[in-house]
Design brief:
The chain is α/β, with parallel strands linked by helices. The protein folds into two domains: 200 residues, HUPs (Rossmann fold); 62 residues, no CATH class. Helices cover 48% and strands 16% of the residues. The protein contains eleven helices and nine strands. The strands form two sheets. It has a six-stranded mixed sheet with strand order 3-2-1-4-6-5, sandwiched between helices.
């Protein structure tokens, strides 16, 4: 069995794409000191492995943090997994126990982030990394909709945001699927625990997860579409340059009656062309073209 810190695999290594994304995406900053939130589950174990692989090339200073919620007896097994990972990777481990926190999801989440922030402050870290992934993003968006949330809630989880006290919360694996993270853990023979509460349908997030699992075969690309919607709303809230270009294109199409049923990817192709300073004709849908020349946008709708 390969050791937990082995980065050499026989044959092709499709899981290496996760490691490469850390250096490419810019969510993790070179030379950063990071506290890695590790519950012992497959997702956070994969995160620890991916960041450990990036540790030398990106000059990262890492520590694992396990937060003991005190809500179930089997939690000591999860703690043992995290301690074993730390020993295998040569990364220090910090354990925090929640005391006096209410048992509802929101209270536990707030207490957990407070504990992680305290550990990060103690270590002089600039970021806390969590293993939220693509399916988590879908669940978060739907839960926000069910609460009747506005644009801020629908924008869901950004890859990086302030956590407080000069410490950021980072989510380097939002682009990845849960299956990819399990595959990574298996490929590197990393141990992980299975949380029995994930099967409790009385927990709202679990209920949403089960419904999404049933919908995915009927709606291929469901998670990518939800993530895209969340990214668009977030860009609008932040007033980014890309959001402004996207709005100009949609307003142009709408003004000429050509927006209805236009595929998002066609709009994004035009957005990228404008960002590059390009020109040309872009097919939006049958009978509708977008013409871009030196930053000007015009729609051509053929009757």
């Amino acid at each position: 069995m390969p050791s937990a810190n082995s980065n050499v695999m026989r044959g092709a290594r499709p899981e290496a794409a996760l490691e490469q994304s850390i250096e490419r995406d810019g969510i993790v900053r070179r030379g950063e000191r990071i506290v890695v939130a590790c519950s012992g589950g497959a997702d956070s174990v994969a995160l620890a492995g991916v960041l450990s692989a990036a540790r030398a090339p990106m000059d990262l200073d890492l520590a694992l943090a396990y937060v003991h919620h005190g809500t179930r007896r089997s939690a000591w097994q999860d703690e043992c997994v995290v301690l074993r990972l730390g020993a295998s990777f040569g990364i220090p481990v910090r354990i925090a126990a929640l005391e006096g926190a209410a048992s509802d999801e929101a209270s536990l989440r707030n207490a957990r982030y407070a504990a992680l922030t305290a550990i990060a402050r103690e270590r002089g870290a600039s970021a806390v990394a969590t293993a939220h992934h693509r399916e988590d993003q879908s669940e978060t968006v739907l839960l926000a909709l069910f609460r009747g949330a506005g644009p801020t809630g629908i924008a869901a989880m950004p890859p990086r945001r302030p956590l407080g006290g000069g410490i950021d919360l980072i989510r380097p694996l939002l682009h990845a699927g849960a299956g990819e993270l399990r595959d990574y853990a298996h490929a590197h023979a990393l141990p992980y625990a299975v949380d029995p509460t994930n099967a409790d349908a009385g927990i709202r997030r679990n209920a949403v997860r089960s419904a999404l699992d049933a919908l995915r075969p009927l709606f291929p690309g469901l998670d990518a579409a939800i993530a895209r919607s969340a990214e668009i709303v977030g860009a609008e809230l932040d007033g980014t340059a890309r959001a402004d270009v996207r709005r100009r294109i949609r307003e142009t199409l709408d003004r000429d009656g050509g927006l209805r049923d236009v595929d998002f990817e066609h709009v994004e192709a035009a957005v990228r062309a404008i960002e590059r300073g390009g020109s040309g004709r872009f097919f939006m849908k049958p009978g509708v073209e977008l013409r871009i020349e030196r930053g000007t946008i015009a729609a051509v709708v053929k009757e």
